[in-house]
Design brief:
The chain is an all-alpha fold. Helices cover 58% and strands 0% of the residues. The longest helix has 16 residues, at 54-69. The radius of gyration is 16 Å and the shape is globular.
Length: 153
């Protein structure tokens, strides 16, 4: 999955309009215009398509965390980092305050079964011997499960 696809899917999951997305970006101090946002939301075959870089998606995910949970007292705005599927899954878990069983239930909505051990491996430190990279299929199904949970479709 590419970052633009994740951005589009999360927009649907949370039913965000353009103004709301710009507001979410503003939580992290990021400045984005309507035109820039529309270029990010376009399909890959569109001439005005602009790839969404990791730093932009990271700011969006951090903005969702701030939107849903607020900024910790005394904490600075989070610094954007390079993303991978494990980090995206982790940021969504934090934003939605999901426990292990909640994530398993969301994945089951999308007909994907994972064990608690496998799920725990996604959130381990990458240097840990039991760390497991989160594949595109798991992330795609997790976002699909979120859309089924929040949109009821």
């Amino acid at each position: 999955m590419n970052n633009n696809d994740i951005l589009r899917r999360l927009r649907f999951v949370f039913d965000y309009n353009d103004a709301k997305i710009l507001d979410v970006f503003a939580h992290t101090g990021a400045k984005m215009t309507n035109v820039e946002l529309h270029h990010l939301l376009r399909k890959e075959d569109d001439k005005q398509f602009v790839p969404c870089v990791d730093l932009v998606l990271c700011r969006f995910l951090d903005g969702i965390i701030i939107e849903k949970r607020g900024l910790r007292e005394g904490a600075d705005l989070p610094k954007p980092t390079k993303l991978n599927n494990n980090l995206i899954l982790k940021k969504l878990r934090i934003a939605l305050e999901l426990k292990e069983q909640d994530i398993i239930d969301v994945l089951l909505l999308a007909d994907l079964r994972v064990s608690k051990g496998e799920l725990g491996a996604f959130f381990r430190n990458p240097q840990h011997k039991n760390f497991k990279p989160c594949g595109d299929q798991v992330l795609r199904n997790f976002i699909k499960g979120l859309s089924l949970k929040y949109q009821g479709k």
